[in-house]
Amino acid sequence: MHLRYRRPAPLDAVHGARRGFGAGRTPTTRRASRVAWLTCAAWLALAGPARADKMTDAEELFRRAKTLMADKKDAQACPLLEESQKLDPQMGTLLNLAICHENVGKTASAWGEFRAVEQQARAANREDRVKLARERAAKLEPRLMRIRIVVPPDAKVDGLVVKVDGEPKGEALWSGVAVDPGTRTIEASAPGKQPKTVTVRVSDAGAVVPVTLPPLEDEVVAAPRVVSDPDADRARDDEYAANQSRKSTGIVVGGIGVATMAVGGVFGVLAILNDGDAAKVCPAPCVAGSDAARAADETTDRALLFANVANVALPVGFVVAAIGAYMALSAGPTEKPTARAVTPGRSRAGDLGGRALLSPRPGGAALTVSW
């Protein structure tokens, strides 16, 4: 909390040279100012080390990868470049990753990365890299291998999602998805349907391999049967009660923190108002020892007291409110589910007269099979 008013100067100093910054402040005011500045600096410094650590790790991985590439060990270098790019994305790292993928035969990955480097270099006015990336991508394009996804009418259902090696591909790409050579996995799924997976081997440069998706079958959902387990019910009730208590405590603690912050804000406003009043009571030049100077001193003392209270109440209230919010938000479920337990789906044991009981427990479930 910084105050504008300064204590009046002695009479013989009223017409003297202009004072430097802070010359008229009391030790208490200077200490309060230093504490406020140090607090702000500490908060601002928290975000710095994490970013610096990532950049350091990324640089270390990049240097290792460059050494491996120089030794013609591209297969070992590519994963290091990928991790470096994740930690600290850089155009130079991406360019080296594209070259590494080209060297190990991952033509589709390299082609896409060269295109990305071309766009980044154009935005950065790096014509040398624009030309290099464009030429390398153009040289790779005739060698690209593609998968053409064929969806018959009986296999095309609402909400159909097609993934190639785990990456969703929109319908606009189904006519030719560029892939790296090797065995590729195509997965089809839709709401209410059983997913199906098809694998295909791609090896010929420039080839387009068609893959026909099979129709998806409907999911088989067995009707659940509600059963009762008294022990599980009691354990679950105790867990819900503990969660409710934690949540309530968190709300109370958070409310105390918010109230403390409000008190700090009020004292901060009072400090500012008293500081302004002190400047009005004894305007410059203010003669030491005068009634106006004494009144200004008293007002300044009150302002300093209020400022100290605000400097303590605001951060303490923030910490307490944060603790309360964490307790309330991290509490587990506080309401009982509608269905307490269900039997699993169809099984051969059920057909032979067996009975399977699935009972929820705190932190998991227990499966009991009886004959």
Describe the structure.
The structure is a single chain. This protein is of the alpha+beta class and 371 residues long. Among the domains are: 48-142, Alpha Horseshoe (Serine Threonine Protein Phosphatase 5, Tetratricopeptide repeat), CATH 1.25.40.10; 145-212, Immunoglobulin-like, CATH 2.60.40. The protein has nine helices and nine strands. It has helices at residues 27-45, 48-70, 74-87, 91-103, 107-123, 127-140, 230-281, 291-330, 348-351, and strands spanning 145-150, 161-164, 167-168, 177-179, 182-189, 196-202, 208-212, 355-361, 364-370. The strands form three sheets. A four-stranded antiparallel beta sheet has the order 3-2-5-6, with no helix packed on it. A three-stranded mixed beta sheet has the order 4-1-7. A two-stranded antiparallel sheet has the order 8-9. Helix 3 runs antiparallel to helix 4 (91-103). The protein is flat, with a radius of gyration of 35 Å. The chain starts with 26 loop residues before the first helix and ends with a strand.
